[in-house]
Design brief:
single chain, 4 strands, 2 domains, two-stranded antiparallel sheet, 5 helices, elongated, 148 residues, mainly alpha
Length: 148
């Protein structure tokens, strides 16, 4: 089986494909502008949807909590120390966002508790809610003050 080669597809070093012939400076600039425009569009869509009180907003906030809790714990700790006030009321509603957490239990007085409370509890649960954008339960005991 023989492969057809396009004209000028082999450069002086014998490489099968010379990208410099395919990508001139103008096409690189056009691709960069397109990618930046696409990134701005996705960011605008995300910023609009993340605060909505529907299933899409809940999903985006849950993904945001997971990402920030896993990869940016310093951001969460800073946000909590700067703006969060109040206490947990133990209502358990935060453990039932989108789906009921498998670690959520109920005691003899029907009060919710976490079965893996402590070091095993995931960061996104341990720090909920960490800022005003993350808070989605109106009766939550935590409130947020603007950053000063």
């Amino acid at each position: 089986m023989e492969f057809k080669r396009f004209p000028n597809s082999v450069n002086q070093k014998g490489c099968a494909l010379d990208l410099s012939s395919l990508l001139d400076e103008k096409s690189v600039v056009v691709a960069y502008v397109y990618l930046m425009s696409l990134t701005a569009s996705v960011n605008t869509w995300y910023q609009r949807r993340v605060t909505q009180r529907n299933i899409v907003g809940q999903f985006l906030r849950k993904m945001r909590r997971f990402y920030l809790g896993t990869f940016r714990p310093e951001y969460i700790q800073q946000a909590i120390s700067d703006t969060r006030k109040g206490d947990c009321h133990r209502c358990g509603l935060c453990c039932e966002l989108i789906y009921k957490c498998p670690f959520l239990g109920r005691d003899s007085q029907n009060l919710p508790y976490c079965r893996v409370y402590g070091d095993l509890r995931p960061a996104n649960c341990r720090n909920y809610p960490f800022d005003a954008k993350d808070s989605e339960i109106d009766t939550c005991g935590y409130t947020f003050q603007p950053k000063s």
